[in-house]
């Protein structure tokens, strides 16, 4: 899938323009000099072979595959590329995202390294590559010489890390603002399971919307059960079965997730956010937020705001 490569190239071009000099030099490489057939009928013409390019870093894109059987076929069909990756100098930085991580893992360059990949590959990759320290709860993992990210937009956190490393976080923030880049998913995994889009159960979706609508001070279990027209016992049993959490814990995560979104997306003061979400005591809100995320609201905003 070439889209991620084009977007990555655009980001580095923007970084060069912001720096006022060519800090990043791009080279399109392939296993050899033959054109590479890509998705959507695209063909890319390499400027150099991988072995001859002498790149300081190589980005391996994702590829179309939606089953473990297809991954096995891809690995078999790309044995030459995998061998070429394994033969690159050990000092070459190797980055990949989405299903492309399979190629990098097969090359052996992730052995003993922390890495991540697209969630549905977790079981297969753990079986195929037990020597890799898989961290599928993370959307992006960076090491000194390798970086991996999940999903088709995984090129973005890799590009961000590179630009921040070379030019600083403020430069990336300027680029992100100018190009209206999507904000990265917070590295803390605590809120990943509570997004409304992740909720497929009708009762959990109704609970989520109800918690977002009500003030934090009025989120007692009985009140919620009454609003949802179920017994408190039924609500507790259903939430525990579907999330592994008590109702109070799930509700707290949903409400704090609202707060985290406002910290990242708005310039509202912490006191205003606390009041708007119905927390009666700002100091209590601050303590709870830090207990759950490990960061104060101010530190969370500083770390994740784009």
From TrEMBL:
Q: Does the keyword Transcription regulation apply?
A: yes
Gene Ontology molecular function: any one? sequence-specific DNA binding
- According to the entry, every stretch annotated as the HTH araC/xylS-type domain falls at 205-303
Q: Which Pfam families match?
A: DJ-1_PfpI, HTH_18
Going by the UniProt record, its keywords in alphabetical order are:
DNA-binding, Transcription, Transcription regulation
What Gene3D superfamilies does UniProt report for this protein, alphabetically? 3.40.50.880, Homeodomain-like (1.10.10.60)
Domain of life of the native organism: Bacteria
GO BP: any one term: positive regulation of metabolic process
Q: Does the keyword Zinc-finger apply?
A: no
Membrane spanning residue stretches? none
Q: Report what the protein is called.
A: Helix-turn-helix domain-containing protein
Organism for this UniProt entry: Aquipseudomonas guryensis
């Amino acid at each position: 899938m070439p889209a991620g490569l084009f977007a990555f190239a655009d980001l580095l071009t923007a970084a060069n323009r912001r720096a006022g000099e060519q800090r990043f030099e791009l080279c399109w490489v392939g296993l050899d000099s033959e054109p590479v057939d890509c998705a959507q009928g695209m063909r890319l013409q390499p400027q150099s072979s991988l072995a001859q390019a002498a790149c300081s870093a190589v980005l391996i894109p994702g590829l179309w595959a939606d089953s473990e059987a297809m991954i096995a076929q891809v690995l078999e069909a790309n044995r030459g590329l995998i061998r070429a990756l394994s033969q690159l100098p050990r000092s070459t930085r190797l980055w990949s995202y989405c299903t492309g991580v399979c190629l990098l893992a097969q090359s052996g360059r992730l052995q003993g390294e922390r890495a991540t990949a697209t969630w549905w590959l977790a079981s297969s990759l753990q079986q195929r590559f037990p020597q890799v320290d898989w961290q599928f709860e993370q959307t992006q993992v960076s090491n000194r010489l390798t970086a991996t990210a999940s999903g088709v937009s995984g090129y973005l956190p890799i590009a961000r890390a590179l630009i921040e490393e070379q030019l600083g976080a403020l430069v990336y923030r300027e680029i992100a603002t100018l190009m209206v880049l999507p904000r990265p998913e917070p590295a803390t995994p605590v809120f990943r399971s509570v997004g409304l889009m992740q909720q497929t159960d009708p009762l959990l979706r109704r609970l989520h919307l109800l918690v977002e609508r009500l003030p934090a001070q009025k989120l007692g279990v009985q009140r919620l059960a009454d609003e949802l027209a179920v017994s408190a016992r039924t609500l507790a049993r259903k939430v525990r079965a579907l999330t592994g959490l008590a109702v109070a814990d799930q509700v707290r995560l949903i409400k704090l997730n609202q707060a985290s979104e406002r910290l990242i997306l708005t310039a509202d003061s912490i006191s205003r956010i606390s009041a708007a979400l119905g927390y009666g005591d700002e100091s209590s809100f601050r303590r709870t937020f830090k207990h759950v995320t490990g960061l104060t609201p101010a530190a969370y905003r500083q770390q994740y705001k784009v």
